[in-house]
Design a protein that fits this description.
Elements lengths: L1 H30 L42 E9 L4 E9 L1 H14 L3 H8 L3 H9 L12 H9 L13 H24 L1
Antiparallel strand pairs: 1-2
Helix pairs in contact: 2-3
């Protein structure tokens, strides 16, 4: 039995010694390991690139001219032209003298000054001619009726200039010149 007892304790001892060696030796070996690494590298890089920028075409935008309302007698006019290189835009307000004349006349009439209101309208040759054809000539320096008609005949240089109305042919010719000028300008700008 003593022999069995020694064998039993020998096996236990060998088992714990093996366990001890398996657990302790690798951890001490890892703790004591030192790794020195030296790396040398060289690289020669050649690269070639091409950048393509895709952008929207340039645009000349006509300005918005806010001069047209019912209270003021102006209207807005604007325009723009654009080529691949150069763009131009412009705008302005245009004064409407006939609108001004009507507003002034209405204001005078509303104030009770009917002769003055008619006198303002008579500055337009069309109104002057219409009043004469109706048998009620335009007022002349405070005179009305036949007395005014006599004074107008005595002073023809004060009669408003006649308005020459455009014919269809005049409009066509003007539009032709504008079109040819626009095409010429566009070709010149295209050559830039």
């Amino acid at each position: 039995m003593n022999n069995d007892y020694n064998i039993f304790w020998g096996i236990i001892f060998i088992y714990f010694l093996g366990l001890f060696l398996c657990v302790m030796i690798p951890s001490e070996a890892n703790a004591a390991t030192e790794v020195n690494t030296t790396t040398n590298s060289e690289s020669d890089v050649k690269s070639k690139g091409r950048t393509v920028v895709i952008s929207p075409p340039p645009s000349a935008i006509s300005p918005s001219i806010g001069g047209s309302s019912s209270d003021i007698c102006t209207s807005g006019v604007s325009g723009a032209i654009q080529t691949q290189i150069l763009g131009v835009s412009t705008g302005e307000t245009v004064r409407d003298e006939n609108c001004e004349r009507l507003k002034i006349s209405k204001t005078l009439y509303d104030m009770g000054m009917k002769v003055a209101a008619v006198s303002v309208l008579c500055q337009d040759r069309r109104v002057y001619d219409a009043m004469g054809m109706a048998g009620t000539p335009c007022p002349f320096l405070g005179e009305i009726g036949t007395a005014a008609a006599k004074k107008w005949k005595a002073n023809p240089e004060l009669i408003p200039e006649p308005i020459i109305l455009e014919t269809k042919q005049d409009v066509r010719e003007r539009q032709g010149w504008i079109a040819s000028g626009t095409v010429t300008l566009a070709m010149l700008l295209f050559l830039l």
